[in-house]
């Protein structure tokens, strides 16, 4: 009886020492319910519950080691760039604003339209570069419209002012185009501008290739920002693939042959023939040659067999 009760409570997960103490106190003829109540009163827990109650110890992994468990994510780490499949966008603010203002007014509303267009498509990294002297009050020779938009974009960490200062009453301006190309090149992004940056192409051969392949031109049509659907020409990638890090190739769709079964082009036909899926696509001339060579080959074999 003692062994059967010991085995029963051991299967429940209690330790042998606790079970023996309770049986000695209550006696060998004690009921199982009484023994279980006494074990609970003593505070004894099954081993499975004790393992769950113990806090899991954090394992320190050496830097650079291969670990299957994902490491902790540090605060401030930008996870959007890793998961985002769209390229970063770098906008030439001066070029966009002057284009929207018909090359007469620095229209900040044009910059806002361009930023909103890329936001709606899901781009998270958008930077606009504008010279610092555009924060000054507008003058007759350099009019500015909707200047408050620059302040709003700066608060959103989208607008970046390129440095400038005055020396003996003359304004010294840093070359903002170099900022635009450099940031876009380092981020492997897209430059939004109608400028070709020929001076920077001659300055750096790596920038030359990058400007040729990553320059996105645009137009404004009735306050609507419109980039082309084929940024690199008719035979280049589409706008969706141009703005994506991993371009998606379109599925090849075969156009059915307009002649159907009457087509005489054979394997040279560029259209789709559903009836030729499991057939060798030979031209008519090749089929006639094949039929003509078959009996000749059989006759030669019969002659050889007779000679032998």
Automatic annotation (TrEMBL):
The text of the family note is: Belongs to the ZC3H12 family.
Q: What is this protein called?
A: ZC12D ribonuclease
What cofactor is needed? Mg(2+)
Q: Which organism is it from?
A: Erpornis zantholeuca
Q: Give start-end positions of each zinc finger (C3H1-type).
A: 251-276
**Molecular functions (GO terms):** hydrolase activity; mRNA binding; RNA endonuclease activity; zinc ion binding
| InterPro entries named among the record's database cross-references | Rege-1_UBA-like (IPR040546), RNase_Zc3h12_NYN (IPR021869), ZC3H12/N4BP1_RNase_Reg (IPR051101), Znf_CCCH (IPR000571)
Q: Does the keyword 4Fe-4S apply?
A: no
GO CC terms on record? cytoplasmic ribonucleoprotein granule; nucleus
Which CDD domains would you find in this protein's record? PIN_Zc3h12-like
Superkingdom in the source lineage = Eukaryota
Keywords on record: Endonuclease, Hydrolase, Magnesium, Metal-binding, Nuclease, Zinc, Zinc-finger
Question: Could you tell me which PANTHER family the record lists for this protein?
Answer: N4BP1-RELATED, RIBONUCLEASE ZC3H12D-RELATED
**Which residues belong to any copy of the C3H1-type domain?**
251-276
Q: Does the keyword Zinc apply?
A: yes
